[in-house]
Automatic annotation (TrEMBL):
SUPFAM superfamilies given in the database record: Cysteine proteinases
PROSITE patterns (alphabetical): PROKAR_LIPOPROTEIN
Listed Pfam families: Transglut_core
Domain Transglutaminase-like: 289-385
Highest classification ranks of the organism: Archaea, Methanobacteriati, Methanobacteriota, Thermococci, Thermococcales
Protein's recorded name: Transglutaminase-like domain-containing protein
Length: 533
């Protein structure tokens, strides 16, 4: 009898102590230099081998010393399958004050089951010195243009110099580019470099049709005797994309199936036209000339849209009465309805060769409610919502205080989101885009909220969400994403215990779930955060 009791007890002790739980990954940390100039850059290299039972979906590096700053994070694979590995490189900025620093690192991994794994640590002693010198073994250099235009092809040159009196084996080289950039052609890496030798490699790269600003890096693995090492160098690069300067062939290549949202002649459909006794067309050339003056030296579609929005806010006051659908007539008014503002915004964007469309609610009869403008970029759709003073990516719009009420209308009142796509002005001519707004909504909100949180708080968010049901999780994400700024969001997540967050979410959801939500969800954030008297 006693033995029967002891066996389960022993098993329980082993389980509690973690002996039966296999770590989900093998993680190794390294840095490319231990001596760095003040405000100089260094690289943290993290090798992750998935040794668990499910795919890994993300990695967050947390710095233990606030003197160091992360300048650029690597892009994690969509899913790192079991048995596969990846090498990730973070670019860090060193402290400005010389001295010795303990660079403490920890890594948090997330998996396909939305679990967060911690317990991976690294620590390095870094000397910040004015006299920081390059490696005395192997020199690596990377050079190329400081700026590129979207779609432009250019050459990046990598030089490798052996500073030793003996040959060095070269194992492999990787060029990390900005998101969307691709290598068109590349020189092959030799197997070795002779003593005091120098090698030049040329890469032909093509820039994406998008705005990008960051660092491009080259990572070289080499071997001296039996010792394997790595060296990394990075240089800044900015890519600008001005579609209004591109020809039609380039625009078609850049926007592909979305190109017609530039050339479509009508802005809203026949239902609108009949209701307001107006034809939704515009003089593209005249509007283009005005819009080009307004956007000035904008370097991307979002930059141009923000300039148009700012001009509109300075030029017009807004109300609810729509008198015309013609942008040429809207321009002459002093006061616009929100619908007229969206129509004019859409027309101005199309006039400078940015794909744009009006998106509205549709209840089976009326398709004029809550109009917003969407414009397309390589990174996806962006939203301009004049009534709520919002301009940003679709993901940011979903995580704004203005989307929860829209979500409630769609899911509880049977409305659909439609993009106005008329060709003949013959009644309702629109396409259903509801899925663009509500598909995988929870994951999309988690991505935005996690990006606003300090890295060390992201696992706390995961723990909170894991203890809520599906509806409560979505409500929690609506609350958190409605925080007016990142400081408020992080303050509440730091000060509140997971239990308090969960209880507040459950209580508020039960109280408000059957009510009509406010157009601005910030109201509920204030209650959640204790900011109301």
């Amino acid at each position: 009898m006693r033995k029967a009791i002891l066996v389960p007890l022993l098993i329980l002790i082993v389980v509690v102590s973690g002996c039966l739980f296999k770590p989900p990954a093998e993680v190794r940390f390294s840095i490319d230099r231990t001596v760095v100039a003040p405000d100089g850059t260094l690289h943290v290299i993290v090798f992750v081998n998935n040794t668990g039972k499910v795919g890994l979906t993300g990695a967050t590096l947390v710095l233990g010393d606030e003197g160091f700053q992360i300048l650029q994070e690597p892009k994690f694979p969509d899913v790192l399958p079991v048995g596969h590995s990846v090498q990730l490189v973070w670019i860090l900025k060193a402290p400005a004050i010389p001295g010795y620093y303990n660079l403490k690192l920890s890594l948090e991994l997330t998996d396909e089951l939305k679990r967060t794994w911690t317990g991976f640590y690294g620590q390095f002693r870094v000397f910040v010195s004015e006299g920081a010198a390059p490696s005395d073994e192997l020199g690596l250099g990377i050079s190329g243009p400081e700026t590129l235009h979207g779609g432009e092809t250019s050459t990046i040159t990598v030089t490798i110099k052996n500073k030793l009196e003996a040959p060095i084996d070269l194992l492999d080289i990787r060029l990390d580019l900005l998101d969307g950039m691709r290598v068109v052609s590349a020189d092959a890496l030799p197997e070795s470099i002779s003593e005091n030798g120098k090698i030049t490699l040329r890469y032909t790269v093509k820039a994406p049709y998008a705005y990008r600003k960051g660092y491009i890096s080259t990572i070289l693995r080499y071997k001296i005797g039996s010792s394997e090492k790595s060296v990394i160098e990075s240089v800044p690069l900015e890519v600008t994309w001005r579609p209004w300067n591109a020809d039609s062939g380039t625009l078609k290549d850049a926007y592909d199936l979305k190109y017609h949202w530039i050339t479509d002649g009508y802005l809203v459909d026949g239902y609108w036209s009949e209701r307001y006794n107006s034809t939704p067309t515009f003089n593209r050339t005249e509007l283009r000339n005005l819009t080009l003056k307004i956007i000035g030296n904008a370097s991307s579609e979002p930059g141009a849209a923000k300039a148009i929005y700012g001009w509109m806010m300075r030029t017009y006051s807004f109300g609810d009465t729509t008198s015309t659908l013609e942008p040429d007539k809207i321009l002459l008014q002093d006061r616009l309805s929100y619908a007229e503002g969206q129509i004019l915004t859409t027309a101005m964007l199309r006039s400078i060769d940015i794909p744009a469309r009006i998106v509205t609610l549709y209840n089976g009869t009326d398709c004029t409610r809550r109009p917003v403008t969407e414009f397309y970029t390589t990174d996806g759709w962006y939203v301009v919502d004049i009534e709520h003073g919002f301009i940003g990516s679709l993901e940011e719009y979903l995580a704004s205080p203005y989307f929860p009420r829209l979500y409630q209308i769609i899911t509880e009142n049977g409305y659909r989101m439609v993009a106005q796509s008329p060709t003949e002005l013959s009644g309702h001519e629109h396409v259903d885009v509801t899925g663009d707004f509500i598909a995988n909504l929870e994951d999309r909100l988690i991505s935005v909220v996690s990006g606003r949180l300090k890295p060390e708080l992201r696992s706390k968010l995961t723990m909170v969400l894991n203890n809520l049901n599906e509806n409560e999780r979505l409500y929690a994400l609506f609350l958190l994403s409605s925080a007016p700024n990142n400081d408020d969001l992080n303050r509440v997540m730091e000060e509140y215990s997971t239990k308090k967050i969960e209880q507040n979410v459950k209580t508020m959801y039960e109280f408000y779930r059957d009510m009509e939500w406010s157009d601005d969800f910030t109201r509920y954030w204030k209650i959640f955060a204790g900011d109301v008297g």
